[in-house]
Amino acid sequence: GPPPGGPRPMGMGMPPGGGPNWAPVPALPPSARGGPGLGLFAIVALIVALVAGAVGAGVGVIATDGDDGGSVSLGGSNDSDTPIQARPPDSVAGVAQRVLPSVVMIRAQASQGEVGGTGFIVNGGYVITNNHVVAGAGGGQIQIVFNDKKTLPATVKGSDPSSDVAVLKPEGQHSLPPLPLGDSSKIAVGDPVIAIGSPLGLQGSVTTGIVSSLNRAVPTQGEGGGDASYLNAIQTDAAINPGNSGGPLVDGKGRVIGINTAIATLGGQSLGGETQSGSIGLGFAIPINQGKRIAEEIIRTGSVRQAKLGVFPDPRYQDGGARIMTQQVNGQDPVVKGGPADKAGLKPGDVITKVDGRPIEDATDLIAQIRSRAPGDRVTVTYERAGKEANVQLTLGAD
């Protein structure tokens, strides 16, 4: 590998120093007792019990203070037998009613216990999730728990660590409908979104928010120091927590626009003496257009080819754009001979400032932009050389 702080070839990259801690949404942590995050379940149960106890005590005090020895009636509904009415189809409740049956909880048996996450059903009965949800299984047993609590074993059809996408195939029959897939290229900042998953093992949890930003370059490290992935992500303030990994981010019509994957955390910072973790309103999802392409390739071939530009960007360059290294990296030229960039005339020291007209902030941003595309895609690269700007069209290769 490269020296500490040194570059990696395009498609690998190095995350910049400082800033927030980017992390994949952890799969439900392994439990020493074999259950899915039993310690977390205990914490949640304790908090719920304390709140319920406090509310009950408050009601009791109020009733006693207002009671002069007579009976007290707090009233109640007389229509308890009335069935729950269908909600408007475009309301959050209406969308949730349609989407929830096709969202599953995933349990993977790892060496340290059971880990878990979320997935959703697509055409052919396949289930899309994150690679980091199932990577820890190491060939161990994987189970899918449907919304009606039916459980089926599943096998990994294929996965791609670099994009953090995996496809599972349930073993057995189910008749649940696939979720409709939207078009992530047509969403806008401010659009309402809904995240559905199993945070902390709480299956069928629904949270809401908006699209906070688009094309957010997010480098993440796989579980246990595994392969890094680089997301050209949708940012959302919908609450995403451990166990949400691999679940759908849907639009106001219930169409999947993203795969919930990562969160930003405060790391070692604390507030009130407690370390902050979980959702702080900064969640990230793989755009479904990219996720769909990768999943289809996995289903078709069992593997994935990533787009390749053929340069080594300098992760230490922070003056705007991504500068191509000027020295060899591990014996390789900074512009790979015969690669797409070489054929297009790019040279060491060139600063790539735009891809298809979208500004590039740094090396990580460039990596995320290229990774979001497919081999064979034609792109326009804007670059600066000796203070002069130029454009070049090239065809991305495959790694």
Report what the structure shows.
The chain folds into two domains: 92-219 and 228-266 and 278-301, Thrombin, subunit H, CATH 2.40.10.120; 307-398, PDZ domain (Pdz3 Domain, Roll), CATH 2.30.42. 17% of the residues lie in helices and 32% in strands. It has six helices and 22 strands. The protein has helices at 38-65, 92-99, 131-134, 288-301, 340-344, 363-371; strands at 21-24, 103-110, 113-121, 127-129, 142-145, 151-160, 165-170, 192-197, 205-221, 228-236, 248-250, 256-265, 270-271, 274-275, 283-287, 307-308, 322-323, 351-355, 358-359, 378-385, 388-395, 397-398. Strands 8-9-10-15-12-11 form a six-stranded antiparallel beta barrel. Strands 2-3-4-7-6-5 form a six-stranded antiparallel β-barrel. The two termini are 17 Å apart.
